[in-house]
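Kindly review this record before class:
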Amino acid sequence: MLIGAVWQPHDPDAIDLSLRFAPPSLDHWLGTDQLGRDVLARLMIGGWRTVAVLGCVAAIGMVGGTVFGVAAAMLEGWRGALILRAGEMFIVVPTLVVALTAAAVFGLNPVTAGVAMGLAGIGPYTLFAHALARRLLAEPFVQAARAMGVGGSGLVVRHVVPNMAPVLFAHIGANAGLAVTAYAALAFLGLGADPSRPDWGAMLFEYRMFLFDHPLLMVWPGLAIAMVSATLNAVFDAH
């Protein structure tokens, strides 16, 4: 997906009506659409835009939520409770509603969608990371490390985070797949979207009218969404 940011086999916006609905060939591997545009090139552009969304979601929601959750477990008392209450506030409004609102106000692009979904995801990640960290802090090997004088960041880096990682990665993989489908849903709805940008969801919306005559136009972006979601789950589960 990343290669789509710097290279495509054809100009994704080049219109050639003489090639409209061309079948897959050596020149156009996935064929062309109703305007003669190369489908593979448009999929590649949509791919790197999806990667940008995932980057924002990971940096804000996954990393931020994990940091807050571990901090709440380490601090305990009123400070830990305050962090958890703040995290719970982000759970009240569903992620897609936050993203829809941001898209309607600021326009839909990978940054606004990623930031909105990342902020909405901080709460669930905070509570999940807090539960994992609390369980680990009660384990005998962590208690032994504390008795030997290991505390603060040393305890977190050496004992808590490494043992949280397998479960946390599996959870992140499932939610990264959800972020892919959520962004596709936003692009499909088209709130504030730039129709010239070939996001996978926007392609599904545009090509829906040709579902029965040229079904492959719907198959390619749908398959891309499914494959990326499944790959993210498989990769993170493997860790």
Summary: The two ends are 21 Å apart (CA to CA). The chain is about 70% helix and 0% strand. The helical segments are 39-75, 77-89, 95-106, 110-137, 140-147, 152-189, 200-207, 216-237.
